[in-house]
## 1
Amino acid sequence: MGVTVNGVEHVREVEPRLLLVHLLRDELRLTGTHWGCDTSNCGACTVWMDGLPVKSCTVLAVMADGRSVRTVEDLEGPFGLDQIQTSFMDCHGLQCGFCTPGMLMTARKLLDDNPDPTDTEIREAISGQICRCTGYRNIVAAVRHAAVAEALGRGDT
Amino acid sequence: MTGTVGGCAGPGFGSVPRKEDGRFVRGRGRFVDDIALPGMLHGAVLRSPYAHARIVSVDTTAAESHPKVRAVITGETLAARDMAWMPTFSHDVAAVLATDKVRYQGQEVAFVVAEDRYAARDALALIEVEYEPLAPVVDARRSLDADAPVIRDDLDGRTGPDGRGNHVFDWETGDEAATGVQFARAAHVSACDLVYPRVHPAPLETCGTVADYDRISGKLTVHATAQAPHAHRMLYSRIAGIPEHHIRIIAPDIGGGFGNKVGMYPGYLCAVVGSIMTGAPVKWVEDRSENLMSTSFARDFHMHGEIAADADGRILAIRVSVLADHGAFNATAQPSKFPAGFFGVFTGSYDIAAAHCRVTGVYTNKAPGGVAYACSFRVTEAVYLVERLVDVLARDTGRDPAELRMANLLTPDRFPFRSATGWEYDSGDYPRALRTALEMADYPALRAEQKERRAAYERTGAGTLTGIGMSVFTEAVGAGPRRLMDIMGLGMADGAELRVHPTGTAVLRLSCMSQGQGHETTFAQIVSHELGLPIDAVQVVQGDTDNTPFGLGTYGSRSTPVSGAAASVAASKVREQARQVAAVLLEVAADDLRWDVGTGTADGGNFAVAGVPGISVTLREIALAAHGGLDLPDGVDGQLTASTVYNPPNLTFPFGAYVCVVDVDPGTGEVDVRRFVAVDDCGVRINPMIVEGQIHGGLADGVGMALMELVAFDDDGNHLSASFMDYLLPTAMECPAWELAATVTPSPHHPLGAKGVGESATVGSPPAVVNAVLDAINVRHADMPLTPAHVWRALQGRPIRPDIAIR
């Protein structure tokens, strides 16, 4: 199979049953994507596949054949951190850091699709992710913070 | 950076960003499963499908012939090494791999070491185990019946009086006679049965290890999810027979603990044996089902409480009896002289003349554990009991629950306060906390709204019902002192070592271990506060037994009360050492020097000569001189370094007042937590941002336990909650935007005036949520979790008892 991960193409022979999360973590050593529950409930393994967030613990690696995958390691660009990463730090939107990569990937997608989400829209967007540490309030605040910062960056009023 | 919090001005304290975050937002944290050592093999555990069965035979032939399998370990393999059983934290033993019987579903039976994690799982299916199923004990209330199957026949009748084979302990506290006197004179007595169901801490990262045994040096390195690395080292040494100095425990980043990562689990030990047998590093990381089925559960307290009051609503006494379900092995991780943990603080925040409590612990065919999930050693159960009883009393006597609480709260002049069960509360101002919470919530307006909604519902049969619930909790955290509190004989004290380098930066080594609490930041702030150095100039080292002082670790909200105090004391010692060096530098008597902590610049604080303006020397200058050729007086060591072991004189007693507002749909039983007001007092706050984050997380725990979390079993002992599809955790949709406020009542015995806070909200919030739901539906009592089905049944007058409906 061949898959492009964070812009780099990888060709691998894999077992048909290999999960995408294990391809990323064990074979490609991209350990930012975490393995939390096996049942798509916790969202710690969320990555993008062809631009859409998926839970990589319930995606077979071969299903990513010919596709493009983006992980948390790709959020930081040549000019520094993505705004959503900065906002999570500024708003104390993380504690143990285990759910954070999945949260960031989902939040980034939300802001790309809806640059000015309400708190309720943010809560709905991350409702497929579990965080055991923050009680979510500061994650919601971080996403709002990023939305406002990006609006200011665009010169929106 | 500077901050003023709780009367502590100067550098260091304040809501500064966390030093840990940069790696986590980049996906560059290093968790156990991220570790890949050269030649590393993978382990997997074969688990029992039965709750109770005799093992007839275990055949590993087919598994061993799997081309990728390198070792198969059974109970017999371990027995040959005298490792089939291990000591628990509570004077019992637990099976590592079962040899005689399996005693709960999910118990460890065999361990496979293979070249990759999929092959290890494949080989599990090749192991043939023949079982002879036995009748299980699932309902704790049946465990002491004369005809109950004996679970721990390995203990050979040593489990209890009268041949009660499943008996673990009886424990009591308080004054039974004095309590009886108060009940006899009471104008009113309310009684209630309350179940605090079995729940699970379920950190998002499961438990795991990479064990690496070096055959040449005889050194064992264990990378593990360990909240208490030093205690674990001693345990590995005792169980595996490896000298303690040959064992190094490294806890890397931990993805949440909540008590789940205090215990010693068979998978850890099997990975060690696997590494010894194969000569290669062995990784074992459990999956979610394994985590929920076999690692430390929490609660499972079946309580009967009575509360007595006089005619004016003055609470006189509380009497409690408890049946504690400890599962198949007594493995609760708590101070060993406290079989019911700190449940004895059940008199809560009230001025109560007398109290008595009796707890009986029993074995059942369920996973062991019992103290976990941010409970402060069963203070969670105690607070739930008293705060529920006070609400029941209010309802039975027609009083407003806020007024009843206010009339009975301890007042600030009573501190330090010795409770009826012998605990000395260090400091508190409970009425102020409750007043603040009620004002924030606008309690009178909420009651008026509630009345209108109920009237509208009764008129139209449509709409939702509003409920207002509260709790005023007192926590007990920061164990020891060590003469009273120990884990397996290890006194509950913690070390700290601080060194200031020649260039004026510092390294602080700690025995505690963060699981997300931000120790790298908070503890650097403590040193900054004491020495005036920038926070970024202080490196914090934790979680590596080769590079940190001995101590008992992070659980029971111990880090700030114990290790925080240790860090403060070590920094004070360094400061006094610096004073001696400064005296030589400035050629004055040490007593003539005055310390000025400064503003947190790279120079640090400075010593100035009293009464002589302009003559001073900075900590940075002192640090360089201390490492140089200066002639120091006898008794003053060169360099700037100090260590200490902090043995707390008492627990700290943080407290708070919570108000929860819910809307309940009587048609569906669905609960919407609309508001949650939390006023917490944890003494001086070192980093208020981190403190508030801890509280947010605990409040979500409370919503989870009150409304959805439950570890359930069927009649055969099958685990019914072994995935996140069945064990429900709150998401962002079930949690409101928490409304927080702080009061600050410093601890009089902590060097910084701080108290622990990590578990306060988990302890305090469940009764507030339950009280709110029951207030909305006007039901005297129903047990957690108040799922829509449970609420709906309660509304029909047929509340579900989780221990009866789902054992």
## 2
Amino acid sequence: MFEDIIDNYIRFLTSLTVDHFIRLFWFFIFFEFIRYFLIEFVILNLWKLSKWLNRDVYEKARQEFLFENPLVSIIIPGKNEGKHIYKLINSLKEQTYTNIQIIVIDDGSDDETPTIGRDLQKAGLIDLFIRNEIRGGKASAANFGLRFTKGKFIIHMDADCSYDRDAIEKIIIPFYLDKEVGGVGGNVMVRNYDESLVTSLQAIEYYDTISIGRAVTSYLGIYRIISGAFGAFRADVLDQMKGWDIGPGLDGDITVKIRKLGYKIKFEQDAVCLTSVPNTFKKLTKQRLRWDKSLIRFRVRKHKDVLFPNQAFKFANFIAFVENITYNLILNFKWYFYLVDMVVNYPSMVLNILITNILLYTFTNFTKFVIYSLYRERKNAPYSFFLIYIPGMVFYFGYYLRIVRTIAYLQEFFFKLSYKDPWNPEKTSVHAKRLKL
Amino acid sequence: MKPVFVLKGININDPFVNRLTDGTIFSLEQIEFIIPTVEKILTKVNDLKFTNSISFEAQMIEKMISFMYTCDVYDLEPVPYVYSGINYSFPILSVNFSQTEEHSVLDILDIAEREGIFESDYYDRIYLCSNCSNGHLTYREVCPKCGSSNSTTEDIVHHFPCGYVGPISDFKNEIDDQLDCPKCDKRLRHIGVDYDKPSILHECKNCSHKFQDYNVKAKCLNCLTDNGVEMLKGREIRKYRLTKKGELAAINGFVSTSKDIEEIIGTVKFDTFKTMLKYEIERLRQTEGSSNICAIHITNPSQVYSKIGSEVQKGLLKDLVRVIRSSIRSSDAITFQSSSTIVLSMNEIPTRIAKRILEEIIVMLKRLMNTAFKNMEVNFETNVMPLDYKISPELHIQQLTKDFK
């Protein structure tokens, strides 16, 4: 049986012509390989080159920042996050940049978080602990914290993260490189990469797809999401927008809002934050369903106006939107189209096509991981650890995440389920739904 | 200790007057009614033997229990009293102290209870200034930054549709009483539906600091120290009952507290002595040998102590111990059962030898007393008993001292 498959597959490979190859693997060649490897690789090199060419400019910006020594306010909103806060504060106390104001906002915790927060404030480890007795959602907690900030820059952090010693310094420098920058996203890496199979796979995803993908889009000026775990903003820009709107997906939303105001958004690969990712497929599915729904809710509904020529129209925003929609939404459904194409037109070859696709993706993933490692200056785990997990990425990225994404898109398209997500209190979600926010 | 009565036209509510006097009469014709009380008190006063106690604390305890005994008062209850430095007064004892020193009352009552003079029950808990131990404190909510108690408070409003959160003044407009969101310009309609008030915010009028949690401070009205509440000294207020031992101490005189005696070099605490005795008895159970326990008792302590001051008393006890220590081996232990009874061990020697040593000690002690206090006669009683592994340490001591006067 197995030998038959092998024989059959070898025969398939020997009979494969170039035309035939393109016809059978058009999805991989034109979308995956060209977009996510070839173009990405070229841009990565351009980005690195420009970084090298501008190293003096960067150093000058760094000196300007350190000379000015502005106050940087850090807001950490969350519910029942008390147990994580000490680790986070510890990493903040180690920062090379020390002119910081730390504000922890408790969004109606029902555990020991208030006690921990007050103790931290009493011990002088944080500047302010404030609390809303009634939960209002992450946006309201962040906005509440915002009004106590006194800094020129505001950094939004998640309580379950911790930060490299130079993370704050690195994330602020882009504001001095370009005065039009309104927000900077930090580089999120996986702390618990060795906890389970699912965390190891996510670590690779964060390395290759998220981090490198953001570096590339940032270089192109179409970087679209400042991670809630680590994002820096100009205080005056946040003030213009009066803070965050309600989520879920508020980090992507605020990025679009900053863009609409005409500011640039940058990604800083060297500003590193470590986070704990979901350690089971069940938890990961829940997280990704939430993330993916927000693409429909915010891009396709709330901010669809970026597509239309109006006063606030920006070409870069238009491109960012189109790129996002094309590669996440359309491509996602196009993959099913490819699947149907193969099943209908080449029913006898489906198994061989599947094997070839797996091999092609695996080979590309290995190549990407090895080559991209040259473009990462910071790693938090030996790369050799991940090599055995790379074949799994085909199934993780190509099948699992794609299916989750499809479900999320359909749920949001047809049922607007994000408004029922318990991540946000119902009292706020009903208004968001009614006002189409 | 003389009986005191108040002659007054009306009833008196002052706790000090009520507890420190033996009664009130409203006219001199009533004197005959108080004669039996006076006689009773005077009879009881005659029972008392006054001593000059070693320490101030012991003097206070003696004074207090003597008074209680003569007045037939066996309960010592705290009285809430606004003029007291600790807000509670024990009139019989507190009368000896000025308002600023009144916290010492609690220390003295603690000592008395440890000595077995009183039994007590919990009554209340008080907090005293960390600097001067005064209980007159004013509690204030203050700014955590500058300590000022001058602040204003505002409700925080969360507008659901846009997520704006801010103090209610952000939402107020200058035209009418309506609330309008500064972020999305929508009018706030209905609490719980489109907005709520999740918390409050205080603003210090002194330093403009905004905060949610006040610090609570307690300012001492005596020394003006601003105490953090966690720095205050918490003390229990208890109600006390005179024990039988306390009553006997009132009659026979209370000379010193165990604290005073423990300070005498060359002795061990009575409890430690009992433990050592227990081990010696246990050792004798397993090995053949002869060990002894001895006691020296001053038969007329009140006579002795009443003639000399507290410092000399301490010196006398120190001399006694020094003489005894010079006659026994260094492995033997000395302890005070009371200020008039010294108990010592003489291990690993026959009882007859122990008796002879004890006789020599008494000769030396009498010689010492004659030299040091020429006009004072000090009488001693002694007893020696061999240790018997069949009986407990407590019983040994009881049998040893049962015949002492």
## 3
Amino acid sequence: MKTAKSHLFSSDLNEKLNRALIYFLFFVLSFVALYPLLWVATNSFKTDLQLFENSWELPQEWHWENYAQAWKYGIAKYILNSVLVTISAVLLNALISLMAAYGLSRFQFRGQFVLLYFILGGLMLAPEVSLIPLFRILTTFNLYDTYFAMILPNVAFGIPFTTFLIRSYMLGIPKDFEEAAVIDGAGPFAVFWRVVVPLCRPILASAMLLDAMRVWNEFMFALTFVVDDDIKTVPLGLMSFASALREQWTVVMAGLIISAVPMIVLYLLTQRQFIRGLTAGGVKG
Amino acid sequence: MKRKFLNQLTPYYFLLPSLILMSVFIYLPVVENFYYSLFRWSAIDTTLNYIGFENYTRIFTDDLVGLSLFNNTLYAVISVIFQVFIALVLAAMLEAHLVRPFFGTLFRNILFLPSVLAISVVGVTWQLIYRPDTGLINQVLRAVGLDTLTRTWLGEEGTAIYSIIAVSQWQWVGYCMILFIVAIQAIPEELFESARIDGANAVQQFFRITVPLVRETTLVMTTITVIGAFKVFDIIWVMTAGGPNHASEVLGNYLYRVAFRNDEMGYAAALATLLFVITFLLTFIQLWLGRTGKEN
């Protein structure tokens, strides 16, 4: 009796110790993950002098004017541009990919597999490979240095993954609803729009979120195809912002925090859809 | 109505928009890229002068290509260690039965957070942290008396590339961990239970159950990470633009510099073809390994 009890006790102790070790390790890792952002956040309220003296203290006075200055210095404009580019690209990609997924999952037709691999093949292509010809194409069509120079390539490179996600989901939806609609006399476009699209809402939410994050953070196309500061998105705008304010570090830090907040809030509000998208895709953006 | 539904052209209508956009903005450029690589031309004077494979022979004599590929390989090796092996171990720890769900979710979300940030937010943040005077790292080192270890992290040839690779691990380990968690959650809990009854400890469970059963995810993650390391561009461009003195040059960055700073479009197109071949081969290897894995 006694031995059994002590055995229980020791394994219990062991378990507690292991748990404590794991929690400690992850506490340290969480600190490493968050501290750079917290460091920038606290310093964004200081003067440059204070930053230089001691960067890990809390600010003595909270200089909110750093934020006002960053906002006025262009961050507001860049955020507006990012919102415009992201919403246009995500909606366009969602519509096009829904159609492609529907075509691929609900019909038997000649060339089906070729077209499936044509679309999925885009997943493996590095955007750099298309960069130089794209530059020429956009210049030829007078799209260079316009919003379209960011929207259209982003949509094209988003189609493979979004179509892949939606198609896998559609394959799992029973066809009963559609068949009922066909008996009621609906054509393929009506079936698509009124039956299939509403049924795909959950995966659509996840796919659009992942896509929004990708477009919002896209850097290379924006860098290559846009020079006008008035249409720059956050990733690019932040670079010109940081180099223009080269000596006002705390204002730059305020700008960084303003730029980081929209995506952090979006993620925290939509974790579930987010993780579902990652699970369904299993692919790194 | 039924006849209309079976109209043979219908599926093609649905596929048309994606096919057009992908052809114009992805596939046509890939083909054109190869064509342009056979010429000498610039963005200012767009006349194409045919020079055959001269741009390709130049790749073999260009030391900066070798240096770039070395840095890409370094990037790949370190990233696989952190984003595959360490991420898998961390995922297994968080999924261990003794971790309470509340803490599991909390830690998972915190570690995931860096991956949602834009590359320029990450890049400029770490530039500030790496700064020699006001930067966090040197300030901490000085505060604890390790002044000799202070560096101009991004400004010294010996440390620049490692400093950037470290940032990339900071940003992506949590992301990869979540993908492994998803794979581990798909393993039937009974397997772990019966192993525990047989007296297997946590380490044995990890190597005998977790590792073999997440093999497919591990393979996919390894290839994605390696391919990602060969096409990396933005974080390098933001943090050092390949400097100092090309010490942190990678292929994507070098290609961009040759195209849009040196204005040697033909040579840049040849470098892009090299990148295409590398990613193509890596994808091919993944598909091949994945297939043999399934046969076993």
